[in-house]
Amino acid sequence: MLRPFAIILLALSLAGTALSQPPAPAPSERGQEPQSQTANTQLQPAGDHQATKPPPVTTVEQPKAQDTHSEPAPDTNNRDNKSSGKWGLSAEKWIALFTGGLFVVTFSLAVFTGFLACYTAKLWRSTSRLVTGSEETAKRQLRAYIFIHDNKMDFKGGIGNFHIIFKNCGQTPAYNVTTCMRIFLEDYPLVVDLPPAIETTGRPVGPGTIQTIFERTNKPLTDQEHGDIIAARKAIYVYGSISYVDIFTAIHTIRFRYLAIGHDLGIGKMRVAEDGNEEVDG
Description:
alpha+beta
């Protein structure tokens, strides 16, 4: 895009250089060497060669004739008019015009450069946002995702066994997977805070891998407790969390809460509690 401006600058430079030289004078104006004539006439009277003493010599000086061929005074006005060029402009005016044109071209280049700088800055910001968006997309696509896959429970000899099954649904492993889980019998609906769960040692979980968190009650249910659960006055709460680190060193935590109430004991499945289920990053 800078080629038209370069061609204009070159043309203006050549025109200014050619017109700044004054034209050569015409042959008719060239000066001629003045010619002068000096006539010195010496008159000598006829002398007597026989005279012993020559008479005195008288020299008569003739007036100088006016030189009609002398060079006329130069016509400065005529020369100035001829040096004005083809369009009647002098060399100084041509230089002034060339300087003005050069200023206009330089100013145009400065404006164009400013627009180009603004466009480059916008392009850089757009590219930066695109790169950042691509990185975030890659992280979302490649990171590990652990979800609760299933749950089950059973009672043998009055002792309840509870299983929380989770799976890594992501494309990369989940590192330092730490789980905690606890079983607690409490009133339904819940009106008090549950005690904290017990944490287990962390371990890696590969993509597509299914693992289970297992806990059991420390004593059999009494008939009263069993009746309260069937009557929905009490519930068995199974709750805890799963924390892991993905390949981008981001920490993710899943909190879960299930409960067994009513005829859930006979089905062998727990229901999801109304609260206590969430995923937290960091």
